[in-house]
Amino acid sequence: FLDRHGDERRATMQRPPPVCILVLVILTFVALERSWSKSLIVWKSKSKSGRSSSAHHLVGGEDIEQFADPLVLLPVLHAGGRGNDDDEPFRVSVRQFEQQILPGNYPASTVWGYGDPSRPDTFFHPSFSVENIQHERTDVKWINELVKDPDACRESRNHEDRDACAPLKHVVQDVYGVSIVDRTLHWANPAADDCADGTSRTNCRGRGAEEYDGPIPMVVHVHGSIEDPVSDGYPEAWYLPNYKLDNDPYTRRGTTYGSLDGSTGEDGYALYSFTNSYESSTRALWFHDHSLGITRLNMYAAAGGFWFIRRSDGTESGLERGRLPGPPPRKGDSLRDLNTEGNPVREGIREIPLVITPKSFYKDGRLFYPANRAYFEGLGDGTAFGDNGDLQTCDGEGSFPPAWNPEVFFDVMVVNGKSWPYLGVRRERYRFRILNGADSRVFNLAFMYYCQGVDLDREPDGQLPMYVVGTEQGLRPNGPGRITMDQDGAALLLSPGERGDIIVDFNELPNAHACPSAEVVMINTGPDEPFGGDLDLAWRDRPMGRVMKFVVSDHDGLDSSSEIENLEFDSNPGGTKLVPDCGSDCVERHFALTEETISLSATGSSKECYEAPLAAKLGWYGPNSDFSGGAIPLLWSDEIVTRPEVGVAEEWHIWNESADAHPIHVHRANVQLISRHAFAEGKPGTVIGPGNPISESEIGWKDMVVSYPGQVTKIRVKFLLPGLAVWHCHVLSHEDNEMMLPFLIK
Fold this sequence. Notes:
- The protein is built from 7 helices and 43 strands.
- Helix content is 7%, strand content 30%.
- It is mainly beta and 746 residues long.
- The strands form 10 sheets. Strands 18, 33, 34, 35, 36, 38, 39 and 41 form an 8-stranded mixed sheet that branches.
């Protein structure tokens, strides 16, 4: 321990006096205790730019050892609501720090994450979970602390410490340390300058392509919540940190910024309130940034976290008979206890949140995100901001955003902040709450087992079924739905932003005599490209075909949950009839999903032009749904055309005329998926046959629906509160480039 250079040197050392040994032991214990969490995360708030160019090469996902580190069980960041009006709101801030995501032979990565500013050890990527009580209000002060030293800055008088309060630039940077914010998109634009229309204002499409190195706007959206519009995290309601900068040129708040303390407080935060008043509990919402035009970058850097809603007594509304696997991590369960293998706290957890956030990395540990459009076209490694080489528009017609990519998929599977982790489990039932936190990647998940340990050179020995118990907004009607991967590969499909609620019974493995060294792999047959409905079944041949591994103990534990067949759910969860008859008062709307293309040449020659995606857009067919006139694409800056009324049922028909599937998220409402039907190419308005069926994981109340290309997706929705809201595609790269529209609830 004292010397690691061999027996010869160790033999020459003099034995220290006993008192020195005692002091050393005490100091070592204190140091280990204080640094324990640093095996998961390194607490530093500094930039990594400016390192030598020798480190500026990408790590290939295929070169990273899989299943090297244990899964991090995410503790509870906050539990329970606000007790009374005199209580202080719960504080959650976003900060920059370093975290060991890749195995230990790689450097730590600089990331952002959420945590309690009074407890620095709670900052993690992704965030620890927030546990709420049904019908009890939770007040949150969301703080933007993206400054050099948040603690010293906050402690200084009026944030006067210029060094500590210096704003950080975006952590998502190119190989040279240039932040890759694409100012030519319609984005927050805190500099309020150089808008494409010649004006100087925030929230505009920029004209220049130079680096934005200013303070970062943030605004938090609790995805799936139905609350007052002030607390929804509207994209133009962003705010900068409370920084200190001489000759400050930046606008510190977006045009629709709001805070429940009257917006008169200091800069750098917004106070939101959540009633958590839903008819059904057992809801798995989640929180993440939603800033206009840079959501993809902020979410890649900061991820987000689960926002659970449960009954005060811990029971689940909609559960008529039986007991679901549990408990989840609870308030008071420490990061150390939850993440020390063999600790009884860790060993007792049976409901486990899994946040999947694919990433790529430079060899020095920094996050990689493609910094130019040439990367999407297969013309480079994407490491230099806006450097598109010979890629240009044909005949000089039009232009394309220099750093934006239509989709991004990455090559390292990260689960709960660790690359390809493993988890030890017993032969019992476990409940997994799974979040797809990806930019563009669609997951199709299944569980394959090997009886003699994982061997990817051969086929697995079999697969374990999954039992779907709920959707994003509560338990399914009637009971669990069984899912196994069929011949076509269909399994548990999760598009970006969707959550799955499943049970896996590891006791359904062959007995320990027949399967003595059982290991189970969560596999992914979602493709490494834009999703249109096709899957990639070659999961053993590609790194992103695996998600994580489960190492199964030889003996049964003491499982207190009910057998699957003994679980019974309410036939009418949430107190409102599923798939109600809209009737004559139901408002019918028809929307279009379209894609604008541009003619590009990779060589500068007009003879080698090809059509490439420029922007996916939402739109409509006019106020009278006139399909003969074709779809009318709409921009974020266009006049609001959708104005639903509170309490009036609506039926939305979403006609997907683009080449890709799009996960659609409607803010401030729950939706029910009714049907999908195919329509003839180029002829929306008339169906010609059935579309993709409603899967087991799509039955019940949801806040996300997948719209497949060439199909019309029908949903029903009813809005409960007035005010501004948005609907958008949850492929983040689409959302950031015009595939999002506001609507006004009257």
